From TrEMBL:
It comes from Guyanagaster necrorhizus. This is Alcohol oxidase. Residues 1-17 form the signal peptide. GO terms for molecular function: flavin adenine dinucleotide binding; oxidoreductase activity, acting on CH-OH group of donors. Belongs to the GMC oxidoreductase family. Residues 478-613 form the Glucose-methanol-choline oxidoreductase C-terminal domain. Coiled coil: none annotated. Gene3D superfamilies: FAD/NAD(P)-binding domain, Glucose Oxidase, domain 3. The keyword Glycoprotein applies. The active site is at H561, H604. Its cofactor is FAD.
Length: 627
């Protein structure tokens, strides 16, 4: 295991912040001895950030460099991603699954779907999910962000979130030769130009992804030349969170390195927070947090007076930490013997994730996908060499997405059927969210995303020496709501993760229809040139409505865009935080991560996580959401 501590000048009084291995002696003679340094050298901080993930490092850096001159301590359970191929190489984006930087969460068997366990891998590393995700960089449509404000949170709308996404990002505009070769199109005026997070197009685009653009156009879908300004419908070239070197961009690389420039910032890695310490006032005040190191030693990190704790442990761990600290639904906490400090039943409720189905096709002879990297050693060697020059297959993770509203996918009769299904509110959907979502669904907001995985990603019959592609079909606005709750008092036990997928009839029906439509992409002239006509998975045995429904139920995947377990909503609507992100009923505890997103959007979620970190920093430093 990589063992290192990241300590800053503020901590040790050194001239520069340092990255030190445990048990090593620095040139200036300071020996860092395991975790003892934590206790003996750490002074109380103004802000303690729990979790050095996507949103956590964003807010930590912004606060540390702000005019508040505030000391910021970040406690992250994982280590640094610097120099790890599985993090830095775009093509390796999902290879972390099952490694020691994967938390290894699983979704409880879903009673309305296949009743099997579904992986919900997540990054246990500085950068969090930004260090392990699929690199896709997208925005939803204006109305979807405005819905947060409509649900009761002043200032949380398209204008502020768009401004803060732009504050995070820096477009690296494609070179003329890349535009010429692949046809990349992006409207630079819709993207940030000077933020820390580099976004760019890969130096290599597999022909099958270019084919997805052509197939979409052949199906009559719009080619969107400006998908980042609040209208995301159609097929388009999507940016990736990578620079043009190309190295994946993570919140660690974007906001933390180089360390020297952030003297107010202290980051401890391999530091797992097990509890937030709250005093006994009627409106409890956080005094610090409990931290556990890999050797089992436990310490208290304290707050300075007037300080605050910022919880950024992600959608699974944030509600767990709130509950372990006595904030939540007493019907859940009391039976576990936890002293209830704040009765707040919204903690862990309102949970959702995108749902996803897949179709697999075989490429014709002469066409190769990433599958070939594992059966053709010559190719792997060639591509590894090319990558060191910034070129070739390994620079690519994704570059084409297609978002569509229901009227592009459904027939007129089916739209009537959709209206019929939507005339009844599903049990788990809150009424106000249902009213908004129904309007978005019927008013042309996109509800499905199609994109291509450049490898065999679903099915039973993968043949050796063969290259495949899989189309992923994602339902972007599920109505079903579930929960994430603890069922033990130990930080080492994962909470029970239950998105309640497919509880709503709409969620089943729409994903089945959208998946059936997915087959049409492969029947276009464009795809027929490069794929074997016969579908590999699920194949011709699935074709009726009932068969598609059965197929999606038995082959359901998580979309890896979990949200909502500490929702930004009024308290009476099961909210956990108000517009300033302070947890209801507490004085100085905020949540700053994707847990606050009250409803999912028709987009991948990392830009929203960065925007939440940026906007929270604006709120804390200026007292308002305007930047
Ligand atoms: C496999 C995968 C693929 C994805 N693909 C994409 C994509 O292509 N595009 C996109 O836009 N989005 C994608 N997403 C989603 C996106 O990355 C996340 O929504 C977003 O990064 C979440 O940010 P966050 O700050 O809420 O949480 P995270 O970034 O997960 O941060 C939480 C941090 O807290 C730490 N932590 C947790 N518990 C503790 C504790 N007790 N003590 C100390 N530290 C703790 C974690 O280790 C982690 O670093 C993907 C996600 C995954 C998992
Ligand atoms: C530090 O050194 C001690 C003594 O050699 C050893 O027992 C311990 O495992 C080391 N710790 C780490 C994290 O390498
Ligand atoms: C689920 O995760 C385990 C390791 O945690 C891994 O071995 C397995 O391949 C994963 N399954 C899928 C479908 O990714
Ligand atoms: C609180 O927990 C109880 C027991 O699990 C449950 O019945 C109730 O619905 C929960 N309340 C909320 C708002 O989730
Ligand atoms: C393996 O890759 C090499 C190098 O790209 C290529 O020339 C060769 O045709 C490939 N072989 C197979 C069986 O795909
Ligand atoms: C939906 O369309 C109707 C009719 O055009 C319009 O009145 C309404 O404002 C629209 N709603 C949204 C959320 O755009
Ligand atoms: C796969 O191809 C390689 C090289 O082209 C060959 O050596 C090997 O026997 C093939 N394997 C199978 C199972 O066809
Ligand atoms: C808690 O949930 C986990 C994960 O779902 C499960 O494995 C475990 O058996 C549950 N424990 C209890 C005490 O219910
Ligand atoms: C957050 O907002 C609430 C409600 O407006 C207010 O009572 C509280 O003082 C605010 N907290 C902070 C830290 O600004």
């Amino acid at each position: 295991m990589l063992t290192s501590l990241v300590l800053s000048a503020a901590l040790l009084g050194l001239a520069h912040a340092t990255l030190v291995d445990l048990n090593t002696t620095q040139s200036d003679g300071v020996t860092i001895l395991e975790t003892k340094t934590f206790e003996t050298t750490l002074t109380p901080a103004n802000k303690i950030v729990v979790g050095g993930g996507t949103a956590g490092l964003t807010i930590a850096r912004r606060l540390a460099e702000s005019s508040l001159k505030t000391s910021v301590l970040v406690l992250e359970a994982g280590g640094s991603g610097v120099g790890l191929n599985v993090v830095t190489i775009p093509e390796k984006s999902f290879s972390f699954v099952g490694t020691d930087i994967d938390w290894g969460f699983t979704i409880a068997p879903q009673e309305h779907a296949g009743e099997y366990e579904i992986n919900l891998s997540s990054g246990k590393i500085l950068g969090g999910d930004s260090a392990v995700n699929g690199l896709v960089w997208t925005r939803a449509s204006k109305a979807e962000y405005d819905a947060f404000e409509t649900l009761g949170s002043p200032g949380w709308n398209w204008d502020t979130l768009y401004a803060h996404m732009r504050k995070a990002e820096q477009l690296e505009y494609p070179s003329a030769s890349l535009i010429d070769e692949y046809g990349y199109v992006v409207d630079a005026s819709s993207l940030g130009e000077s933020g820390p997070v580099s976004v760019s197009f890969p130096a290599y685009l597999p022909i099958q992804h270019k084919t997805l653009v052509e197939a979409s156009v052949e199906l009559g879908h719009t080619f969107n030349t400006d998908a980042y300004s609040g209208d995301n419908a159609g097929v388009y070239y999507s940016l990736s969170s990578q620079n043009t070197v190309p190295v994946r961009e993570t919140s660690e690389f974007a906001y933390l390195t180089p360390w020297e420039t952030h003297k107010q910032l202290t980051v401890f890695t391999y530091a797992t927070v097990s509890k937030i310490n709250l005093d006994d006032s009627s409106e409890p005040k956080a005094t610090g947090v409990q931290v556990i190191f890999p050797d089992g030693s436990e310490y208290t990190a304290s707050l300075k007076s007037g300080g605050e704790v910022i919880l950024s442990a992600g959608v699974v761990r944030t509600p767990q930490l709130l509950e372990l600290s006595g904030i939540g639904n007493s019907s859940i906490l009391t039976p576990l013997g936890i002293d209830v400090k704040v009765e707040l039943p919204g903690v862990g409720a309102n949970y959702e994730d995108h749902t996803m189905a897949l179709l697999t096709y075989q490429l014709k002879d002469g066409y190769l996908s990433f599958d070939a990297l594992s059966y053709n050693e010559t190719l792997l060697e060639e591509e590894t060499e090319l990558y060191s020059e910034g070129e070739g297959w390994l620079t690519f993770a994704q570059a084409v997405v297609n978002f569509e509203p229901i009227d592009v996918i459904l027939t007129a009769d089916e739209i009537e059927e959709a209206k019929e299904i939507l005339s009844t509110k599903p049990e788990s959907t809150p009424q106000d969210q249902f009213d908004i979502l129904k309007e978005l669904i019927l008013n042309g907001t996109t509800q499905v995303e199609y994109l291509l995985f450049n490898s065999f990603s679903a099915g039973d019959d993968k043949e050796s020496n063969t290259s495949y592609v899989s189309l992923s079909i994602t339902h972007t606005h599920p109505l079903s709501r579930g929960s994430i709750h603890i069922n033990s008092t130990s930080i080492d036990d994962f909470p029970v993760i239950n998105p309640n997928m497919f509880e709503a009839e709409w969620d089943q029906w729409w994903l089945a229809k959208a998946t059936a439509y997915g087959r049409k992409f492969f029947q276009t002239q464009a795809f027929q040139e490069i794929v074997v006509s016969e579908e590999v998975y699920p194949g011709s045995s699935v074709s009726t409505d009932d068969e598609w429904l059965e197929y999606v139920k038995e082959n359901l995947n998580a979309g890896y865009h979990s949200a909502g377990t500490a929702s930004l909503l009024p308290k009476e609507s099961n909210g956990v935080v108000g517009a300033n992100l302070t947890v209801y009923g507490t004085q100085n505890l905020r949540v700053v991560d994707l847990s606050i997103l009250p409803m999912l959007i028709s987009a991948h979620t990392q830009p929203a996580a960065y925007a939440i970190g940026e906007l929270a920093a604006t709120l804390i430093t200026t007292g308002s959401t305007n930047c």
